[in-house]
């Protein structure tokens, strides 16, 4: 897609939309705080090893700046937004962990930067913010597809794990 914003700009534009919904965001960090006091972190990733992904996905730490003070909170949900396709082993890691699936979503927008209007996703969370992110992408003309639908050869082995 021509003129599709770089990931940091995409996330900043999405955070502006979140502000219009009454949700709180950070100018410096990429998180959204909903009225029910749940943090939804947005992680821009080019490459993440499966081991690092697992450690971060299970920990879900989020830095919050209030005035001059910083604190670390546990985000309820993490969205991983990949500019390059994530490794297949990382996808298998999340798809085999119920705990990770409930709190982490993956969005692979690499195809958009290759000229297609497709975002591949894994989102089994209950995050309203991530559902809103998907709607935001659709408004930009991006089609949201499940990783499973794009990999029919893997569908049998992956769907058994879901």
Explain the layout of strands and helices.
Blueprint: H1 7-20, E1 24-25, E2 31-33, E3 39-45, H2 50-59, E4 61-66, E5 69-74, E6 77-82, H3 88-95, H4 98-103, E7 104-108, H5 110-113, E8 118-123, H6 128-139, E9 143-146, H7 147-150, H8 152-161
Helix pairs in contact: 2-3
Structure overview:
There is one protein chain. The chain has 162 residues and is of the alpha/beta class. The chain has one domain. Helix content is 42%, strand content 28%. The strands form two sheets. The chain has a seven-stranded mixed sheet. It is globular, with a radius of gyration of 15 Å. It starts with 6 loop residues before the first helix and ends with a helix.
- Tally of individual domains: 1
Percent strand = 25-35%
Please provide the count of β strands.
Answer: 9
Distance between the termini: 32 Å
Sheet with most strands: 7 strands, mixed
SS element count, helices: 8
Poorly predicted residue ranges: 152-162
Share in helix: 40-55%
N-to-C SSE string, H for helix and E for strand:
HEEEHEEEHHEHEHEHH
Shape: globular
Radius of gyration: 15 Å
Structural class: alpha/beta
């Amino acid at each position: 897609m021509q003129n599709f914003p770089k990931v940091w700009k995409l996330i900043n534009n999405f955070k502006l939309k979140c502000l219009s919904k009454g949700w709180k965001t950070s100018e410096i960090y990429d998180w959204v705080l909903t009225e029910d006091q749940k943090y939804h972190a947005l992680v821009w990733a080019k490459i993440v090893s499966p081991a690092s992904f697992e450690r971060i996905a299970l920990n879900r730490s989020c830095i919050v700046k209030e005035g001059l003070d910083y604190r670390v909170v546990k985000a309820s949900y993490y969205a991983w937004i990949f500019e390059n396709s994530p490794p297949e082993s990382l996808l298998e890691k999340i798809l085999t962990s119920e705990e990770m699936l409930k709190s982490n979503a993956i969005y692979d927008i690499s195809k958009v930067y290759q000229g297609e209007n497709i975002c591949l996703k894994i989102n089994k969370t209950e995050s309203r913010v991530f559902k809103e992110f998907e709607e935001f992408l659709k408004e930009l003309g991006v089609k949201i597809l499940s990783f499973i639908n794009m990999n029919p050869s893997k569908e049998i082995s992956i769907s058994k794990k879901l």
